[in-house]
Amino acid sequence: MTDAALSDLRVVDLTQDVAGPYCTKLLADYGAEVIKIEPPGGDMSRRLGPFPEDLPHAEKSGLFLHLNTNKKSVTLDVATASGAVILKKLLARADVLVESYPPGRMDEWGIGYEQLRGDFPQLIYTSITSFGQTGPYRDYRANSLIALAMSSIMYTTGEPDREPLATGGEPAGYFAGLQAFVGILAALSYRQQNGAGQQVDVSLVESVAAADEYNAAMYAYLGAIRRRFYSRQVFGYPMDILPSQDGHVVVIPGAWGFPLPILEGASLMSLLLEDLELDQNPLFRKMHERYIRWRELDELLLPWLTTHSSRQIVETAQELRMPFALVPTAADLLEDKHLEERAFFVEIKHPGGVKLRHPGAPVQMSETPLRSGPAPTLGQDNEAILGEAGYNLEDLGILRDRGVI
Amino acid sequence: MAQLPLDGVRVLDLSQVFAGPTCTRILAELGADVIKVEARQRLDVPRNLIMTDNDIGDQPWNRACYFAVHNAGKRGLTLDLTVEQGRDLFRRLIPQSDVLVESFTPRVMAAFGLDYEAVCKLRPDIIMLSMSGYGQAGPYRDWSAYGMGLEPASGISATTGYRDGPPIRSGFAFTDPLTGVLAAGAVLAALHYRQRTGRGQYIDLSQHEGAIALVGAALMDYQMNGRLAERMGNRSSWAAPQGCYRCRGDDDWLVISIENDEEWATFCRATGHPEWAEDERFADVLARHENHDALDALIEGWTREQDHYEAFHLLQRAGVKAGPVLNGKKLLLDPHFRERHHFDLVDHPVLGRRPVHRHLAARFDRFEPRVDRAAPLLGQHNREVLQGILGLSDEELTSLETEGVIGTTPLLELPPELTLEMLQELLQQLLLPLEQMQEMGAVQAVEPDYRQQLGLDETAGG
Known about the structure:
The structure holds 2 protein chains of 2 kinds. By secondary structure, chain A is of the alpha/beta class. Chain A is built from 18 helices and 13 strands. Chain A folds into 2 domains: about 10-210 and about 340-400, Rossmann fold (3-Layer(aba) Sandwich); about 250-325, no CATH class. In chain A, a hairpin with a 4-residue loop joins strand 8 and strand 9. The longest helix of chain A is centred in the middle third of the chain and has 23 residues, at about 170-195. In chain B, the strands form 3 sheets. A 6-stranded parallel beta sheet of chain B has the order 3-2-1-4-5-6, covered by helices on one side. In chain B, helix 1 crosses helix 7. The longest helix of chain B has 23 residues, at about 175-195. Classes of the chains: A alpha/beta, B alpha/beta. Chains A and B meet through helix 2, helix 6, helix 7, strand 6 and helix 8 of A and helix 2, helix 6, helix 7, strand 6 and helix 9 of B.
């Protein structure tokens, strides 16, 4: 029987929205026991779509189901004194706490880091917030758009004469979730050697800024402020999405696609476009000319691109060893033959009644494969988890009546 | 200085460009001894990308800022794995290492005789991470991949774009750092498991798959409703108004996001336009989605008169989510990022004192995951590594240098007919046409006094 990498860990998860739940989804998929504590009304993402036939239902949010696989759910109002008492009982057997409330909120409830560290010296107390626990903006709020704006990515995304553009799909929460996941594992590794828990402080805004490729470096090493120009890389053209006969492709000639003085024979691009004469064209011979006179270069490429299908283009280019790529929609991904052969998508039947194909394990681990269990219904583990913490059915009845669980 | 979590962990790093180096950069920040292995015959590509001060100097391969930023904290070793001598040294390093990271297409490591099976024989509990573009199996396994292609390939670009426009990529290869962080997490999880059981393992990370979780909501919507997410510009189905608005100043912008009635009322008060709150067209959430264009015009009428940083503080203090669109310079100078040590200063032997941003965006109260060491010059630590870890003698090292197996300069195989003119042309391609880029609008400004503005010289030697 295979083991899971993190099967020895217990996580108490107070997070909502995307970042925290993605972090704890990773912990759970890697095998940790994640107890998701939801306010009695449920994680806010239970109210966010998509829903089947657009009918809101707490057990059928596609976003919630996506972000909460393999977790257990307990309802508990930690803002009440009674809820905080129960939380502390759960923490007695936990390795990690993850929370995503604004800085100071947990302190108001008597369950802040400073208040808990004495009783739980081994606890990894993880806080995922907009701007972090310190610094002049700590009390400000962010979402994906604000994080993208303040990371510098947005300033370099979009068309030169239009407004800066956000990356689609509200990605900031995923970056923060991943960063928190790494931070927690780093703190666990520290604890293994030193025995001590600590606070892990992750912010949405820094998580995206940490992904910067060279926007800050262009200034700190050249004094140049890079700006959006169709989101283009500064070191060459094309490395971009261009139209094909049936959609779009990413045209990336790579380091060896165009003629170079040190290369013999026809260039890969001229072979692809089936016109070896192109190798004599100055636009093919000079990198900077391609970047500056890109419209003229497009005119050389588009007639061939727009008369071939995306798949034909990418497969031919890849045979020539140029890193072209497809531009799939969600529907294309679900039908992609490569992903299918790798059995990437996994079908999960959720206890709330929905059956969906989920993006599968983001890494294939030979000894400790990731898990792909369902997302929990609201409060489905109240009796088991709270029972284990010492509460009997009568207690649970009382707590339920008072709105604590 | 407090102990770091990965003190004592050694990582052999064959990865290239951005994704893999992000993974090993994080491991280095956490204290691992990361040995970046390059061949003199085939340097890591970013050694060619973006020369400091747009000047190739006499060692262009040590001047690229792209390389400097993503490889700080690592040691540099040159080894040519295409020849037996290079492979032999590499094989001798494996038993001394805990983790091996590579990002080639699958056939490369097999061709070196360094697939997991072979590596495992040399170090049974090793953790080997392969992070190719499309994974080790499946019809696209041999496809080569750049981050510029993987972001669209993961489905992200289909939903990125102006409302009336085509799909567009992000301003940086977005999935590279994402899968780099993901990879660091996988290595840490595998180390955790090894600690518990003594067992290593093999990790197959397809960068393509690693990023698909980001389009989870779109995948679910398609399955539930047959609907494909549209490109929405900067708007969202979770907030209205939401957008990016022009401010006073040259190319200064502010993003604003308003979710509910309360935030809307607050926004109208804070901007000095209580009458907007009374306007029927914007009376409730649905109306604000419906009349978003009209709202945008009003909001931009206000922001155009505002400084983007001042408006940011004004709105945030009132309780409205907003943020200035920062460029590279503003990111470096922003007080919040400064106070939280987003950038570390390192002393580079050729480039001097420079900032490098932390790739792990988590702060801890018992240790500080930072790098003290600049990115390695080509082969900078050849002797240190081969002597220190393998115990090679001075004679052996000298003979390896003489034979060109290790060295501190590139060894390019140039055709005999290559003229000086052709070489000049090649070198010219390493520079950016900054003047034209500025004219085109791809570069906003070039500021020769940037070192002073960043205070880099004040701290020199400090």
